[in-house]
Structure formats: C-alpha cells, structure tokens
Amino acid sequence: MPNDTSNPAAEPQPWSRYKQVRKILDDASGDMHPSYQGHDRFWNLPLAELLQLTLYGVRMIAPATSSSPEAPPVAAAMSATMSPCCHAPQPKAAPTAQPQIELGRGASSGLIVGLKGLSPFDGSQFPRLPWGGAAVSAEDIQFIEKWIDDGCPETDAPSTGSIATGLGDTAHVMALAAGTARFAASLGTVNAYRQATGALKVRKNINFLTPEELQRFRNALAKMKSLDAYEQDERSFGYWARIHASQCQHSWEQFLTWHRAYLYYFEQQLQDIDPTVTLPYWDWAADHDNVIISITDMGSSVALDNGVVPEAYRCWIDQQGLDALKAGGVPQPVLDKLATILGQTFSSGNRLFLAAGIKWGDDPVSDQAIIKTLGTINPLWHYQRWPGGNSSIIFEAYPSPEDVTRVLQIENFFSFGSGPEDNHFFGALENLHNLIHNFSGGLNPNYGASTEPMNVNNPQAGDMVNAGRTAFDPIFWAHHSNIDRLWSEWQKLNPSGGPDDPDDILSPWSMTVADTYTTAKLGYEYMQSSHVFPSSSQMPIARFVSQSAGVHPQVIAAHRRAEVRLHHVQYSTRAGFFIRVFLNQPDANAATPTTGNPHYVGIQNMFTGLCIGGPGHCAPPPTTPRRKFDLRARAHKTPAGFRIDCTDAVDRLRRQGDTDFQVTLVILNIDGTVATDALHMDGVSLNFFD
Amino acid sequence: MTSAPIYKIHPAIGVARVGNSPDSFYLSPERTGAPPIDCGADGLPIVKDGVEQPVTRYKDAKNRIRRQAARFRIYVYDDASPNGREVKIGDTVAATQTKSGQVFGGKLIDIQWTVYLANKKSNWYEFQQLSGEHGYDASHPLRNAGITDANQRQKLIIDPGPRTVSWSDKTQRTTGFTRGTSPGTPECFPPDDLKPNAIDTLGQLTSITDSDGKNRLLVLGGLGNSGSSKSGFGEPYIQNYANNDGWFDDISDGPVTASLVIQVETIDGNPAPPKMQKTIPVNSSAWVITGYPRYAPQIVDLITMDDLVYDVAVRNSNFAPAIYSKSQYNRDYIVYFWRDIWPILQRPFSFQFVADIDPMAGGDPHQTGRGSGGNFDPTPLSIPPFAGEDPVDRKNRSDRRMFLYSVLRKAGRENSLYAERAQPGRIFFAMPLLCGDNPLSNEVPSKFLRLTDTMLFLLRQWADGKFLNEEMEDIKPAPLPEGVALDRGVLGNVLGGAFCPGGEACWIMRNPAIYSAPYRINTSPSITPGSLSQPNVVAAADTPANISAGLEPGDLTKYSAVPWQADFNECSTQDVDVTYENWNLIESDSTGDVFKDKTWLTYWWPAHRPVMVNGAAWSPTPNSHAGDLTMVNLWWQLGFVVPAPDWTAETPDFQLSENQIGGGK
Fold it and tell me: What are A182-210's pLDDT values in tens digits?
C-alpha cells in the first residue's frame, strides 16, 4: 500500500483490525501459496478488490446488506392500482410467519464459510480455507467475522485486550506506535528497568540519582548498618568495612582489581536487599571548583573541615529528626538551636553543630543523640568526616578534570594503575585516590588535647584518612566507585593494558585478577545519568516519539559523551529496515531531511529476514530464565540493542539553546516508506557519561 | 443420541475371473488401473513392507491362466468411525437384529460368509442388442426355445445352491460350488458330458484371516470351461456371437452375505445371560460377478463400470449432491482437473498398445504426452482461467478445451460418426471412436459409444473453465472412505460400455431398479435353490423374473453371451454401417434408392479385448463363428499386455507377456 509520507496523519496504523485479519490468514497459510485462481493470498489484495472478489464463483466478502425491508414486488403494487385482468384482485397475502435465520454479512461471506469448513468448503466442493494451511481458530474466525460485520474498516483499533503492553488503552498504544502520542520517561529507577530487561545495571553519578534512587540507596545502606551489632554477619555494613581493614590492596597492581572485586561483592550484598541499588560514584574532579570555592570562602584561617562533599553525603536536620530528638530526651535549648538550621545541609557534622551554635562536647549524650539522628536521616553521612585541609595543599593536590584527563592519557598500566608485584609502586590514579582519602576524611578539629586517636567518637582523623577505618565511611564506596569508573574508562582507551599477573587470586574471594577486567561481566556500567522511555515489544512501532527526558542542566552542561540506546530490538520476520534517530524533532518522518539537519543523529541498520523454519523458529527466546543446566550458547534470536552516539547532536542543539532533549525514531523500509510492522523493542534510553 | 453401528460388506460388487489353473490364483485389484494383488495358494496376500505386492505372472508354472479371486471384507460404521473401519475377529461389536430391533453387543468370535453363485444364461432370453433393456416383448425369443417345460427349463440354470464358510471351525473354511457337494439343497449342473469341456464347478469359497485378525472372504469363479450338450454331426459348433443353444459356460454371479457370530455380553446395553451366542446378518450385503480374464489389466477402459454405476448413483440416488441434485446438474460445480478430468483424458493414450488406432498418424493420435504440445497435453489443459492471465493465453486454452469437448459424442448422437460443429469448415470424428451398444441391427440402433452423462457434465464444466488445478491450489482432495474406495476401485477394472453384450456384465447395470443403494445390488429376500426365477413367458415357472423383487444369483450375467468366448472373439473390430443414422442393416440390393454403402471399421473395447499388440494381431482367431469355436479352447493361451520395463505413470508403455500362441513363452 502506498504510504503518504508527507502527511503523518495519513500513515497507516500499524495495528489495525484489517492488518490483524491479514496477519491471521497469513499465519494460518504458513509457507503455502495456493494460486487462489491467480490472486495468490487474496486477502492481501487492495481492500477495494477484496470486497468484490469471487473465488471460483464464491463471493469472498458478502456485499453490504441494507437494513430496509425488501421492496414489495412490482406486480403486486400494480395490481393494487390497476383493474384486474383475469380475476379479482387477490387480498394481499399476510407475511408468512416463517422464522428466517438471517446470516450477518460476515457469516454469509465466502471467506468465513470457507474458514469454518461449511458447504461448499466442507470437502464436497472445496476443502476449508486456507487451502494447504492450518485451520484458523474459532476465536480468530469470529474476529474476522466481526470485522466484516462492521463493514471491513481499513483503519481502526483492534479489539480491546488484544495488546497487553502496560502502556495504556489500545487507542493510546496505537497512537504511540504511529508516533502521534509520546512515550513517557520512566519514573522508576533506571536499574528497575535494567533489571526487568535483563540489562547491565548502571552506577550513576551520585549527583544525578533520582530522589527514589537515592532513597533506595540510603535504605539499603541503613539496612546493612542495622546489623552492625553482629560483627560476623556478612550482611552487616561493618563486616564489609572490616574486610578493607584486613585485606585491601594498595600501592601495587592489585589496587584497582582488588577494589573492583570489593565493590562488586559489596554491591551484591546491597542488591540482596534491593536489586535496583548500585554503587553511585562521586566525580570528585568535577567538584574541584566547588572545593576551591568552599575553602576560599571559609578563609585561610580555617585549616580543617573546609571542603565540600556531594549533597547526597551531607547532613541536615529535619522536623522528623527534631521530633525524634525531643522524644529521646534531648534538652529543649539544643532543639531550639537545631531548629534554626532546619533543612540546611552541611558537609560535616561539625559544621552543622557550629552553625546551630551547639558546642561539641558540652553534652555528650545530646551530641550522640544528634549524631544518631543525623545518621538516621541520611545514612550516607558519616560523623567521622571532616573534608578539607590546608588550603595550599588542597589547591595543589585536589584533582581537577584536566588532571584526570592527563592521567587517563597514560598508556601503560604500569604507570597508570600501579606496578606489578616485583616492581611495585603507586600509579598515577592511585595517587589521586590517596588525596581524596585524605581530603574527604580530613582531621578532626575537635580532637584538641585528646590522646585517643582511635577513639571512634572523637578520633584524630576522619575515617577516610585511616586505611583501617576508611570503609566505615559510606563515601568510601562512592569514591572507589569513581576510581573504578576511571579505570574502566582507561580500559576502553587501552584495551590490552592491564596487570602483569592476571591469574592472581584476589583474596578473600575466589576471583582472579582477570575476572575483574570487564565490568559488564560483573553486571554494571557507569553513566552520569540515564533517561528511559519504556516501550513494549508486543507492538510494532512506526515512529517513536518520546517526551522530553528532563535532563539535569548540569548534565547537559558537563557531560562528555551522550548516547541513545535502543533496548532489545527483536528480530522481525520481514525484510530489513532502518532506524533514523533525531533529537528534539518530534515531527520527524520519512521525508525529514538528514543532511544539514542539526537534529539528525544518525541511522541504524537492522538485518533481518523472513523465517525459513517451522512455527516459532524466529521468535524471540522466552524471557524466563534459562534452565539450570542449559549451557547452550546465546539463543539464536536474542533481541539486541543499539548504541547511537549523539554527543555531537546534543552539543549542536545545546549551543542553539535547547535545554532538554527528546528522542524521535523513524523506522523505514528499504524503499524509504515508513515500516509499520518492523520495530519491536523494549524501550529507548538517553544516556550521558562523565 | 448415538445410533447403533451398521455393518456393510465391501466392495459392494466384487469381481472374480475365470482361469484354467485349478489351484493358483491372485486377488482382485482394488484400484482403477492397478494390477491385481499376488497371493499364495492359501489366499493370503504377498506383503512386503506393509504393502500388498502386485502380480507379475498371470499364469501358473504350467502356463495356465490363474484365476482371480474377489476379496470381501466387513466394515463397521459407528460414531468412532463414521467413514467406516474394518472389523476383526475379537473386536467388540454391537449388531442390531432386524426383526426384533434388539442390539446385541459382545465379542465377535466368527464371521459366517454365505455366497450363492448361479449361471442363468442358457435359461434366459436371447441377447438381441438393446431389445429387452426396457422390457422384453412377448415375441422375444428364448435361448434353448426348444425346451418348453418349465421344470425342464429350470435345469438350464446351473444352480449349485448356496455355500457357507466360516473361520472358527477349521473344517468350514473352504468349500466349492462343485457338482455333488451341495449340503442338502437342490443342485443342478449341466450334463456331465459337455463338449469340448465339462462344467463341474462354478467356483470356490474360502474364509481367510490375516495376521492382524482381519477375516475376509475369497470367491473364486469357474475354470473357463464352456461346452455344448448337443451331439450329432458338426456338434459342437457356434452359430451366433451371443446365443448358442445347448451351450453352457461357467461364468456366474450372485449375492454375498455375511453374519456376525457374537459372544453376547449385552442386549440393548443390559447384561446378557451367560454363554449366549447370536448370529446377526450384516446390514448391507454385496454381490460377486465372475468375468473372463482381464488381459490388459493396467489399461483402463474408456468407460469403466465404475463410471457407469457412479453415473447411475449420481443421477438416481443423490450420490454426489454437489454435482447433481433436484434432477439437474449443478452448473456452478467446480471440477478438479487431476481428480476428475485427467483420469478420463489420459485413457486414450494407452489404447495404442492394444489397437492400431491410426496407421497413418502413428501410435498416439491423441498426443497425450506431457509437453507434447498435442491436443491432450495436460500442461495447457490443466490451467484454469486465473486473475492476471494474458487474455491471449486464456483464449488459447479455452479454445483447446472447447475443441476437445466439442468432439465428444453427446447424448442422442450415438448414431453419428461425426462431431457436430467442432470447428467451422472441418469435420471431426466424434469421440470415443468405438462401437456402441447396437451397431448390428435395426432395432434401437446405437452405433457408437458415448461417455456417461456425468462424465460429459464434468468435461463440460472443465471446458467452460469451471475447474481448478488442485496442484496449483495446494488442495489435496480428501481420500474416499475405504469402503467407497473399494466399491469404486474394483469396478474401475470392469467394462462399462459398450454393451453388445459387453464384458463382465451387460446394460442391466445401468438400470437404477437393480440397486438398493449406490453401488449396492438389491438382493431378493426370497431366493429358493432349485427355483431360481425364469423369464416371465415361461408358463408355470416357479418364480417369474421380476427385477423389483430383488436380484437372484445369475441375474446379472444372464444377459451376457453364452459361451462368452464367442462374443469375446468377435468383439475386436466391427464394420459399422454409417450410410444412414437410423439403420444398421440396409438392403443394398433392393430397388429404389441409389446409394453407396459406407462403413467404418470401428474397435469395440480394445482394453478388454486387445486387437493389435506390438503391430501383430493379439489373437489369431478370425472374426467368425469358426474363430469363436477356436476361442473356446484358445483363450487361456493368449498373452497378457503388461507394463513394459520403461513404463511410467506419465509415459505408459506396454508389452505382450506370457503368450503361448505360436509356441511363445
């Protein structure tokens, strides 16, 4: 059928009843192509021809019946007015009370009679339709019959309930498939989508976690911390912190690999609690300017606790916390002081106390209560953390993005990632890593004359400073997530670079060094932020138009790379097709120009083809997990994804003033017409990388 | 409400064939054009890989023609098998006793088969072509007219009485319709000194059970013995192709009935008394005809007896309502080319192997080969009009079909040699160019053969383009139910025309009154051994012949020639007088009209009576009474026309085999 591509409204609906009827008949025919008196599969003829078609004298679609009763015969009418010729006029015969079983248009159509195997398609003249093919189910016959009864509409919605997409009612689903309605961004967590679609999970930049993602992360950590009384319980937060104390590897080539394994196993614990939780990373280099500003603002007289950490790791007091403190017996004056800083965030507990005007140490019980409450409000905050230090040291040593870029440009693991066993030393990345530990832990300004440097309640230094205590600070994980991310970035630039001894075991686990080389095998990847537009593979999409993603302005400003992904594109048993990707051009269609179009991102090519196997041969594999002993290779028609780099397009559009982004896909046949039955996928995402 | 099962014998009409081998025989073919089925002396078919093997040698080790046995089976039609399945001894059956209406259920422990063969030829009216088909007038002569006493005439019927076989008692498994073996019923055989051959048996019955437990009946016919009871100078001699007083042959026919012996467990569903046995007759009985040998077993007659009986059933018994109902053919019926048309159109091709159709044009005047481009090339003929067809091609194909149809002889044109208006300006012989039912006498002349009404209807639908090619449409026509396939397949090897008097049976087969159901002969319920019916004119006959009362043993074959060898010999070719349409015999010497006698030498039915094989006469006997007499003892020396080694279904080829004439092998 010719597609009027210049008018999107005229493009055929991909999922009309008419198309479903044809699909039912095509499927039942299988591979058979009887001649049908030269028409081949006559249901695929233009609809106007099909409505008039006779097959060996049998009309396939009955003509439309009029609902008005039959006109009385002419002779009777005449005899009523003219004088009788040979005999007296007969009284008009009363209509006979014969009950007439009137067949509807569908039931009297040869196609339906043939599908049902009724005479003459009962073998007495012809076999049942489709010839040579499988019988059509009773429900499908009823569906086709109803379609005929309704006048054989060419474009209309299929019956409700036939598409279970979870995307809304069928009218909306059809609009989505045609591109006249927009796909909404998922409001759930990115990793929930990844989990549902069996994809790698994302470790996001901590600054761009959605409120839900952040809350889930906090809840999971709080759950782990709740078991800290049980030192041997491997589900407890403290258990994992102690592993670092005893087993961590630093200053040689196992630094990066050991910490990757460490983070992996810790993350698995978190996912036992909530499978959508991953370890977000702290891009401390991006915070460079903030740190400098913070230290500068506080003045050179402040030598400690003058730096900043990401908002997510800060502390604050909220009304609920105040209520809890009040119930816990904290004196009212303290509460009043706390009330003055309600909602303000502070990079350290010390600064919160100072801001509130509470003197640390005056009321240790109250202090502890406050600290406990602050920890409950934000499990990511850690009391023993005083980020900052001497300004000139920090200014000199705190890594800037350029420092990181320079480190990533080192081309050998020897210098980048620390040396091997018999020639070991700190590598460049580890050097940066060390600084952040010192920076984020800092020294305790309240240590004063204490002589107990290891007093947990009042240590000399922040936990991040002490290798034996560092993993007790939740920011440890964000820091090392970033280190791990930088190593994975370096791995992309230097695929063959790595430690000298890949077979070494990373104790206390059974992983070898080589086992940690690919984050994909460990189930994650890094992204600054990700916006998912879920679709449903049940419905073929002709044009995909998303709503705006709601990208954080900072992400738009400060990302290094952007990528559109198509998730789980299914093998379609039809000729190959193309996917054109546009940003911020929701009315893009087959005629939209690509050359010179700043919105155009690129084209993806899909290699498919008709199925030559038995029924189901080219269907996507079932989504249920594989049987335990099914060791076979990847299923043949496993849906695959596309990654389309759109960094340049985002850049162009940002420069011309766009402040948010939406994705439009136009699916095209080889002949350039819109392909309405080609693209089946799980969804589209727009992803940004630091 | 489930209905009680119905039991029927299939095939409805079985065919046995005479042979002079006393002990070697084979089984009747069960598909049109298929060879007969080989079997051992015990009657069990030779089976290889589950497939019954065809006969390769038609004569025994002493070059005597093996007889053909008709094989009958019992099918049950019930809710589980609406299209019928064969019963086995040991099956659980439920049969209805007609007189009480009770249904007796239980285990089938035995089947009793009863057959009654008889030969009424010598007792019946003379065969005089078509006279008598619609009633014999009072002056129609009888055979052996000199014998007038009814009781004496009764003895002109070879009547051995009925015989019964069953399986469970080993001593009851086989019996013969042989002189002196009647179990108490009156028997009558011709005088034991017939010349040249005595007749002491009409055949044999055997009950056999194969390894699957399926019990079947085998009926063997006579030994091909024909002889005359007359003595005196010149006897025996033949004086007529169909009627020879004093002569007898051992052809026969008669009803085949069966009864189920049931170890009763339930009566109408209720438990039965212990140790109860019931013998219940099956609902539909069958018939057996003995014919003479089928010398060209795989060459199909132009009109088969199946075509004929099918036509009768279609037009009288609503056998195919899609084709014919409410007394008319359905002009919207779509025929299938390969199922309905090609089997007819391909028949003429093989006639070149048993006749010399056109010495000038060569062996295959019809050019039926595929791709030959000839008139009968199925490639263009099999393409129906279709959408998107080149109009020129459509016209060409339609013209081809219409041409073939137009040369066919239509109803009412039996006396015309030529086809009407086949093509402007050209004259064509009407087809088939074979003799009709009466090219001999002036009473009801019917010089040439025409296809049945149903065959003509199907071909007309095809010519009009109302057909489909099932290969192009991926349609596999549903196979016939087994029972129906047997009924039709057996008769597909029997001659269906012309009847002068024909092959195995005569024009009586096209009388709808003899059938009780499609393909089922209406059996008389009151057959009395020793008092089989005689022609009505015989005063004081015990039983006057009356078709509406049902048929008796001998009633199908009595119309055929006696001895069969006489007609068989003469039905090679015929000089048909075609001077005038309404006359076969013209007194060309009379004064008056000046005219020139025109004749056309026409074949009878070469597939049943080969004439020329491989360029030589198949039988050396001349077409005369003397030749007829020779045929009485020569028939078993004639060779069989069998597929040549290079035979294929698409390019058939035949050769002569087992020929003893002139000392051949």
Answer: 998 888 888 988 887 778 899 999 999 98
Residue with tokens 């005219």: B595
User: Does residue A611 lie in a domain region?
Assistant: yes
Find the residue in B nearest to A41 (Cα): B473
pTM: 0.65
Model confidence pLDDT, tens digit, residues B207-264? 999 888 899 999 999 999 999 999 999 999 999 999 999 999 999 999 999 999 999 9
Q: How many domains does chain A have?
A: 4
Query: Which pLDDT value is given to residue B48?
Result: 93
A125–B478 CB contact, under 8 Å: no
A102 min Cα distance to partner chain B (Å): 23
Contact A35 B473 (CB under 8 A): yes
Distances from the Cα of A116 to the Cα of A26, A27, A124, A147, B388, angstroms: 16, 16, 14, 16, 28
pLDDT tier for residue B391 given thresholds of 50, 70 and 90: very high
Separation between Cα atoms, residue A308 and residue A324, nearest integer Å: 27
Q: Please give the residue that has the higher pLDDT: either A438 or A167.
A: A438
Q: Are A689 and A563 in contact (CB under 8 A)?
A: yes
Q: Which of residues 133-172 of A touch B (CB under 8 A)?
A: 133
- The interface residues of chain A toward chain B in range 39-68, judged by CB-CB distance below 8 A, are 39, 56-57
Whether residue A280 is found in the same domain as residue A408? yes
Q: What is the pLDDT of residue A595?
A: 93
| Structure ipTM over 0.90, yes or no | no
A354 domain-assigned: yes
Task: Answer with the one of A476, A494, A522 that is the final residue of a domain.
Answer: A522
Q: How many CB atoms lie within 10 A of CB A254?
A: 25
Give chain A positions within 8 Å (CB) of B478: 123, 127
Residue A38 to residue B387, Cβ atoms within 8 A:
yes
- Angle, helices A364-377/A349-356, rounded to nearest 10 degrees: 120
Mean pLDDT, range B144-169, rounded to an integer: 94
Q: Please tell me whether residues A275 and A418 are part of one structural domain.
A: yes
Q: Which residues of A, range 4-33, sit inside 8 Å of B by Cβ?
A: 32-33
Of B321, B322, B387, the CB nearest to A37: B387
User: Is the domain of A645 the same as that of A543?
Assistant: yes
Indicate whether A310 belongs to any domain. no
For residue B98, count other CB atoms closer than 10 A to its CB: 10
Q: Which among B387, B474, B475 is the nearest to A39, CB-wise?
A: B387
3-state secondary structure of B71: strand
The residue of chain B nearest to residue A132, with distances taken between CA atoms, is B474
The whole domain housing A373 covers 315-377
